[in-house]
Amino acid sequence: MHKEKYLIQFQKNEITEYYVYKKLASFSKNKTNKNVLIKIADDELKHYYYFKKYTNKELRPNIFKVWWYTFLSFLFGLTFALNAMEKGEESAQKKYKEFVGKVPEINKIINDENVHEKELLSLIDEEKINYISSMVLGLNDALVELTGTLAGLTFAFQNSRMVALSGIITGIAASLSMSASEYLSQKADKNSQNPLKAAIYTGIAYVLTVIFLVIPYLVFSKPIISLSFLIINAIVVILLFSYFVSVVQEKTFKQYFLEMFLISFGVMIVSFIIGIIAKRLFNIEI
């Protein structure tokens, strides 16, 4: 790619990040967070105008990225959205280094980006990020247990409404049990911040996953169709979950997704078999 095209790409990235930080700052209710985001946004805008001196072009931001990271902020929290954006821009930052000595002040821009990632973003104060492990616990457990349970009940009952009712009852009971276990676990941990909040985050993550997995059985009357959409929903949850963990814990997305996929669908297959055996063994027709 020609040097000018790279500079245009850099300029596009900077104006896009400016609008992302600016929009996130406008939604932030925490004064410290807002000030941090405004400071970073101002730096990104300076970088944009710096590259503009070389390209002589007025560029617009990537609107999709602006709204995408804003959406991630609402869904998973501010810290997650910022980490995801920084991770997505790693290749661009590496490309900056190739222009050291070729473009004046590029070292300052590289330094600013490092400061944003290592210092300013570390100042972000957010409650959600302190309870990531609790949310992960609830979501992960609900995913593994409910996919298997609903799949087994599908073959045992052959009735979508019955499966949905059983799934909801099982899910709510399991979420309460999981929340109680998380509360006791955090209570025993001297480093735990707030056992009650940890339990609440675990329970909410569990219940939301249960609802998402049960919905097909409330919408479709034919069990096999419901099961098909259960599989799709489970894959969506695994994708989101794997993406979340890969960003927060800096793990490889593909490896974690494959691991979760094999575990969840392994449990589902075993539950299929158990459901068929149970139906034939007890000669149940519903």
Automatic annotation (TrEMBL):
Subcellular location, record wording: Endomembrane system
GO biological process, one term: intracellular manganese ion homeostasis
GO terms assigned for molecular function: manganese ion transmembrane transporter activity
Transmembrane segments: 66-85, 162-180, 200-220, 227-245, 257-278
Stretch forming the signal peptide: none
Protein topology in the membrane: Multi-pass membrane protein
Keywords on record: Membrane, Transmembrane, Transmembrane helix
Gene Ontology, cellular component aspect: endomembrane system
Superkingdom of this protein's organism: Bacteria
Name of this chain's protein: Integral membrane protein
Lineage of the species this protein comes from: Bacteria, Thermotogati, Thermotogota, Thermotogae, Thermotogales
